[in-house]
Amino acid sequence: MTHTIAIFDSRDVIRARQVGYDVAASLGFDSMDQTRIATAISEIARNVVQHAKSSGVVSIDEVSTNGRRGMTVSVVDKGRGIADVGTALQRGPPTSVLNLGAGLAGSRRLMDELQVESELGAGTKVTMVKWLRCNHDDDAAV
Questions:
Q1: Which of 124, 122, 132, 119 is nearest to 44 (CA)?
Q2: Residue 86: left (phi > 0), alpha (psi -120 to 50), or beta?
Q3: Half-sphere exposure of 83 (CA within 13 A, CB side)
Q4: Domain architecture of the chain: domains with CATH
Q5: What is the pTM of this model?
Q6: Rounded Cα distance, 2 and 135, in Å
Q7: Is 92's pLDDT higher than 60?
Q8: DSSP assignment letter at 66
Q9: Strand, coil or helix: 32
Q10: Rounded to whole angstroms, how far apart are CA atoms 131 and 57?
Q11: How much is the pLDDT for 87?
Q12: What is the pLDDT of residues 19-69, one digit of tens each?
């Protein structure tokens, strides 16, 4: 089942974050990954409100491929677009509220996959994926 949230303002960002958190929990993600997913959704949805200066749509769904399960999130807007996606993905922690790309770089670190398609004057689509981890993978990381 796809969950779709229209993004117009900060209240919608909060709602998208909560839906992402709830879907992650229902799919069996641990609490740390639930928080990572919700934070990534919040960062990208907030970019729609702050930087795109337009409305957008967040779509959240379960994904299953090659025996792996997880969730996919796409955020689409019809805003200004990003002139240099590579630079936006490389940026570190924000130095100001208006630092375009801070949300992208942070979300890239929180999720397993992140892809950005953007066209100046036409908008941006960010697609993120988080995969469920097997318990033995957690043990190996310790």
A1: 124
A2: alpha
A3: 1
A4: 3-140 (3.30.565.10)
A5: 0.85
A6: 27
A7: no
A8: T
A9: helix
A10: 22
A11: 85
A12: 999 999 999 999 999 999 999 999 999 999 988 778 999 999 999 999 999
